[in-house]
Amino acid sequence: MIRFGAIFYLSACILAGPVHAQQVDAIDKILSRPTADPAPGCAVGVSKNGTVIAQQATGMADIEHRIPATPQSIYEAGSVSKQFTAAALLLLARDGKLKLSDDIRTYLPELQDYGAPVTIRHMIQHISGLRDWGAVAAMEGWPRNSRNANNQDVLAIAAHQAKLNFAPGSHYSYSNSNYNLAAILVTRVSGESLADFTRKRIFEALGMGTTHWRDSYQRLVPGRATAYAREGGSYVIDQPIEDAYGNGGLLTTVKDLLIWNDALQADKLGAGFRDEMEQVGVLTDGTRITYASGLMVSTYRGVREVAHSGSTGGYRAWLARYPTQGLSIALLCNSADSNPITIGRGIADLYLGGLAPLPAYKPSGPAPSGLFVGMASGLPLRVNADADGRLSINNSPLTPVAKGRWRLQDTDYLFGKDGNLIVEANEEKLPYRRVEPVETTDPAPYVGRYCGTDNPFCMLITKAANGGLAIATTGRPGLAAQPLKPAAADLFTSGAGTVRFLRAGSGRVNALHLGDSRAWAVEFVRVE
Fold first, then answer.
1. For 369-395, what is each residue's pLDDT tens digit?
2. Which tens digit of pLDDT belongs to each residue from 13-38?
3. Residue 117 in 3-state DSSP?
4. Residue 90 vs residues 232, 314, 419: alpha-carbon distances, Å
5. Whole-angstrom Cα distance, residue 100 to residue 88?
6. Phi, psi (degrees; rounded to nearest 5) at 294
7. How far apart are CA 419 and CA 371, in angstroms?
8. Which of 24, 44, 57, 342 is the most exposed place for a label (fewest CB within 10 A)?
């Protein structure tokens, strides 16, 4: 069965066990795109108790040459790759060559002294506080995938940072720096690149014959699906052009990802290895988060789920394991407008039994909308309500689940009687305080040049033609002027991130903090 927009591939010879026609058709409907034109798509593999029961693919692996995707097509797995980097560190720990409790500066002395040790375990559980290198580079005018960057470039950026997002172990904040630095650490400890180490110890050992790393984006990869993004009414190529890897960059197939999942479940890398991989992070206040070693260990509709999603360029990925049911699902897509978690869980629903019902709660009373600022991150969060009382954040609708509690995917928003907000994400409870929004402000106190205390570049705040403010990077091309939109007193939002201006005792603006969810408060001091 072949049709443009939903090219469906299924061969009985690649299915082990009975073919469940109803589920196969349902997967086809989930993956299909409502278009008559050639479009990218996805490949999916499903295994049950170590036996592959379905492999399907839809769409084009290569639109230009009209090459349909197949289950054998090679995709990039984005952050699904992180679990393989973490596994390499765990193997080295088993070899006695390192301890996860080691201070990373033992192996990466280029990093600055943060006043408290950042451990290897902190890194792989994203509780290190290390700023995300991509977020910092974007402030300079080099957003991800706008230039070729390698792991040494990541180290150079990380080495400039004199401050962390937070004290090590006190919070969770997803940062790719953790895993690029981990790749360097593997090399320094083992004497081999992460690519060579994992090839020998994982990929070849488990029979993952098509899996390798994108450590050179220029290398030819036969059978690779091209990544695409939607622009206007058509698709454009959106391939990664970076050599940085370890945080992402794994080139693989759904078959190989199922082999990996089943190997973890069966502890083929050594007794207790799976439990080590699934050991979740514990914050300094005792909170057990859901992030483990490149894996999220949580529940989905009452069922235990071990999973991770991925996104690099136009590639999207999701790999999940449901241990109680013996079910694994691997999903790889080559279109940036794919939602891998939604698609993947939709497929999981076809095979999982005994799922808890979806929440059905109808709120009453005034909608708890407003502007809130994170007590830890300092970042604003605007909750909007429509005329019918439905809430949304950045155009993403929230689902009411209980009185005062709303949900967006795996994050809950709990509105208190005091008017403030608690965001529950990864089991961590983050307080937000309600602030009074502002619509306009006098630009004069803010105009000026602000240079980094941690980074060798400056930000220029100027008065825009419309009377407002704009922010740009000085000296280097890249970050063009971005409008600053007033949010609250001394707080602005922009395409470059959130800008909070700081004042001296005299009341004069003398610095600014620029930040986003992965680099919270990067400081720039005003200079004449």
1. 899 999 999 999 999 999 888 999 988
2. 344 344 466 787 888 888 887 776 89
3. coil
4. 45, 30, 45
5. 12
6. 70, 15
7. 11
8. 342
